[in-house]
Design brief:
The protein is mostly helical. The chain has one domain. Helices cover 61% and strands 7% of the residues. The strands form two sheets. It has a three-stranded mixed β-sheet, with helices on both faces. The longest helix is centred in the first third of the chain and has 18 residues, at 4-21. It starts with a helix and ends with a helix.
């Protein structure tokens, strides 16, 4: 299931590119696009980390980061005090973006970003559950697949070739474009469920409260009624109500 999502996305991307540009793109150029897109599937962990470094830096420059003495930073540091300090061998780097948006995400390089809007909505246990979920996407390889998908979509628009190769130095706009595609890419239903269970198991292992996984999804379900929010936490597959029920079932079963 981990490889199916990016492969499908690449196929759709190439199909769209072919339909939109066939009139102006010659066969050689189309072949180059296809080759670059397929190259996304062979990205090494080092490539993914480098691209994540640049993408995360672009997002940090674009957004207002809460200063060290901010109540949001102080609270986040307290919330993650018992959470992993490394993920897949990469140092976990937690920061808060000052924005009313309800979102959080993590990249394969250990970049973990939480939005102040999410912190305003969630209590500490709920916030910890959401962060555990995002860490799960990294630990389970989903974030790598998501970056492969983002890279394929960007490569089809000439981004990679302009940068001089997969691990070339991207410009600010290119890194920002890659980051946006990463954030807007959808995780599959199985990936979302696996990340939920990862968070539940992580909290269990560290003897932390797990009820927040239930109530956080209940809050997201209520907030997302009639809302279409792209790649944010509110765009949930499966629906947040189902995910809350699944976490409650695990709580009730004691497993």
């Amino acid at each position: 299931m981990r490889s199916f999502f990016p492969l499908a996305a690449i196929a759709v991307t190439l199909s769209l590119v072919g339909c939109e540009t066939m009139k102006t793109m010659d066969v050689t150029k189309l072949t180059d696009v296809g080759g670059t897109a397929m190259k996304a599937m062979s990205l090494s962990d080092a490539d993914i980390a480098t691209m994540s470094d640049q993408s995360c830096a672009a997002m940090d420059q674009k957004n207002k980061i809460a200063p060290a003495n901010s109540k949001y930073t102080v609270r986040l540091n307290q919330v993650v005090r018992q959470m992993p300090t490394t993920v897949n061998g990469k140092t976990a780097n937690y920061k808060v973006y000052m924005t009313p948006d309800v979102n959080a995400w993590a990249m394969a390089n250990g970049c973990i970003r939480v939005y102040s809007g999410l912190m305003d909505l969630m209590n500490d246990d709920e916030l910890r559950g959401v962060i555990g979920h995002e860490i799960g996407h990294v630990a389970l390889g989903h974030s790598k697949s998501r970056m492969q998908t983002a890279y394929a979509a960007s490569a089809a628009r000439g981004l990679a070739s302009a940068a001089g190769g997969v691990v070339g130095q991207l410009s600010q706009s290119q890194a920002g474009d890659l980051a946006e595609k990463f954030l807007n890419a959808q995780f599959s239903q199985s990936q979302e469920s696996a990340a939920d269970n990862y968070s539940f198991d992580l909290l269990t292992e560290r003897k932390l409260e797990r009820k927040g996984l239930v109530t956080s999804f209940q809050k997201l379900a209520k907030l997302s009624e009639g809302t279409s929010s792209g790649g944010s936490l509110l765009s949930s597959h499966p629906p947040s109500t189902d995910r809350a029920a699944n976490m409650q079932k695990r709580l009730d079963s004691g497993k």
